[in-house]
Specification:
heterodimer, A: about 325 residues, mainly alpha, about 0% strand, globular, disordered N terminus, B: about 280 residues, 13 helices
Chain lengths: ~325, ~280
């Protein structure tokens, strides 16, 4: 028997199938665009396009107003690395601040979480109290604490005669540094507490009881069982605090304004001033690109390191 | 860690309460001094007020045009939230339900943008915003919040959609329901827990944001609460009597919001960070 070989036009049946398939694909592409499109559009126009333009401007000497944008190659970057002490200083301040702030706010946050994990009657009230500073924006918090440091601490100092409260809190480089750390920790540790509490609640109680029967002390329980089990929470909290501390702006602006003598000027403030007060957009964007690279590298390394620990545990 | 209330728990309880009180001292200072005359603040900031002066509040209310600033903040926060919930939930659902390389790459791009510091995009953004007519306008600012809020909101929805069973959607589709119908009638109501989280996180961020409104809004009429408060401080440096009243006015709305919804807020933050 001869096999049927189709030579003529495709049978109407098959043809129809192909058309509907094509139509279907077209239609599903359209619905995909309808669902994903709006989010993608806003995201591209507001974040990605300016980001790419920023990369371009960082190679120019643009002043932000002029219609002439002159290409200068790596001139801005060279300037930043060789001839910009204030930027270098603000970078040192931000890095030091980041380390101090991350360690202290996580210690306090984790401490709060352990405390609230006990069967306290005031547990819910305390949780609310510790969290409140988080709902207030950094700017207003900075103003509040400016008053506390300048007037409140002085009054407490006069009453109690404790040296700690009598220091020139915002007037001296070292104390101003720690002043910002204190306020940051006051604001953020409640947030960290919430994450740690959620993680602690996920720890299986029977595991702890078994260890306790075997004679493990509270400290052993904490370091050998609880902390390894909730390492993912540490990854998140460190990621959040590192990026928040690195980008500090509002709190810094209202608390010290970068002073005294620019000693507490964060990178974010430095970039803002370069661009909008000195009108050096080109240089400002070059700084901001470097800033992006540092933040990205730091947070990636941190997540990689803590993630690795998680797997081992 | 135990569940019984022991002596140790009692000690911890006292310790916790003391720490909690210390934690609240800044609020004590701000509140009591906001109702003192200026001279009394200078003499002793820690003392209980001898007389309560509420004229500080009346003056500040006028100077910063509090009702206007409050209204602006409210409009910006509410509409940014509505828009972000709509566009992010739709996109996240479709991306999860259409597996493939394209969706995957798109997701990675969205999420990695979370690392970009605002300072890196703010300068060219002002140029883009100027060209598109988004500057010095509240709708323009809201559109910018759409763009900046998408990564986190989409990330949260994306994680949550994966836990929603697909079967109901399929049967609805077989019954002839359109994609939009499936999404809005079936999926969106199921996303409610994460929608609450998204709204809370975005509200705290947008309500308190300072730098973006500072760059975008120039007219005094359009000022948000943080902008109004900061311009007040710039004008009346060290006028602590009025300054503290301004601070109290500034933080009261968001604290009320928090106290009313604190259960949801704390739960929302916890689930939002762990997902």
């Amino acid at each position: 028997m001869e096999p049927k070989i189709q030579t003529g036009p495709v049978s109407p049946d098959v043809q129809m199938k192909a058309v509907t398939k094509k139509k279907f694909k077209y239609k599903s592409l359209l619905t995909y665009a309808a669902f994903v499109g709006p989010a993608l559009l806003f995201f591209l126009v507001i974040q990605i396009l300016p980001f790419l333009m920023g990369v371009y401007y960082s190679f120019t000497s643009w002043n932000g107003v002029s219609s002439v944008v002159e290409w200068v190659g790596f001139e801005n970057y060279k300037k930043i690395f060789t001839d910009d002490k204030t930027f270098f200083n603000s970078f040192m301040f931000t890095t030091k601040f980041m380390f101090a702030a991350v360690i202290i706010s996580n210690l306090i946050g984790f401490g709060f979480a352990l405390l609230l994990n006990a069967a306290l009657k005031t547990r819910n009230i305390l949780r609310t109290v510790f969290f409140i500073p988080n709902v207030i924006g950094g700017l207003l918090l900075g103003f509040i604490w400016q008053f506390i440091f300048v007037k409140g601490f002085a009054s407490i100092g006069n009453m109690t005669d404790i040296g700690f409260f009598k220091m020139p809190w915002l007037g001296d480089e070292t104390t101003a540094f720690w002043g910002i750390v204190i306020v940051f920790a006051w604001q953020i540790s409640g947030y960290m507490m919430v994450i740690y509490v959620a993680a602690l609640q996920g720890v299986d109680n029977s595991l702890l009881e078994a260890a306790r029967i075997d004679g493990a002390s509270n400290w052993t329980l904490l370091t050998k069982i609880i902390i390894p089990l909730i390492l993912p929470a540490f990854t998140i909290c460190f990621f959040l605090t590192i990026s928040m501390a690195f980008k500090i702006f509002d709190l810094n602006i209202s608390l010290t304004g970068g002073g005294p003598f620019n000693s507490t000027q964060s990178v974010a403030i430095n970039i803002y001033q370069e661009a909008f007060q000195n009108n050096r957009y080109g240089l400002g964007t070059a700084k901001s690109i470097l800033f992006f690279v540092v933040v990205a590298v730091f947070t990636t390394i941190q997540v990689m390191v803590t993630k690795k620990k998680e797997v081992q545990a | 860690m135990g569940n019984r209330y022991t002596k140790r728990t009692f000690v911890l309880e006292i310790f916790g309460i003391v720490i909690g009180l210390i934690f609240l001292i800044p609020f004590y200072f701000v509140l009591i001094n906001s109702v003192k005359p200026f001279a009394a603040i200078l003499i002793d900031a820690a003392a209980w007020p001898k007389e309560f002066v509420f004229s500080n509040y009346a003056k500040v209310w006028e100077i910063i045009n509090f009702p206007r600033a409050f209204w602006n903040s409210l409009v910006i926060t509410v509409f940014s939230n509505i828009g972000l919930v709509i566009i992010s939930s739709m996109a996240a659902w479709k991306m999860v339900r259409t597996p493939g390389k394209f969706s995957k790459i798109l997701f990675v791009i969205f999420v990695s943008a979370m690392v970009i510091p605002f300072q890196t995009v703010m300068i060219p953004l002002m140029k883009v915003g100027g060209t598109l007519g988004l500057t010095n306008s509240i709708p323009g600012l809201i559109i910018m919040y759409f763009g900046f809020g998408v990564p986190l909101s989409l990330f949260l929805y994306h994680g949550f959609v994966k836990t929603v069973p697909i079967e109901i959607e399929e049967s609805a589709m077989i019954d002839g329901c359109s994609q939009f119908g499936v999404f809005w009638r079936i999926v969106f109501p199921l996303l409610k827990p994460i929608t609450v989280t998204v709204i809370i996180l975005n509200t705290l961020w947008i309500w308190n944001d300072y730098l973006l409104p500072l760059l975008v809004l120039q007219d005094a009429e359009l000022r948000t609460i943080p902008l109004a408060a900061s311009s007040f401080f710039a004008q009346y440096t060290k006028q602590w009597d009025m300054g503290l009243a301004a601070l109290v006015l500034g933080i009261t709305p968001i604290i009320i919001f928090f106290l009313f919804l604190q259960k949801h807020i704390i739960k929302g933050i916890a689930s939002g960070s762990i997902k």
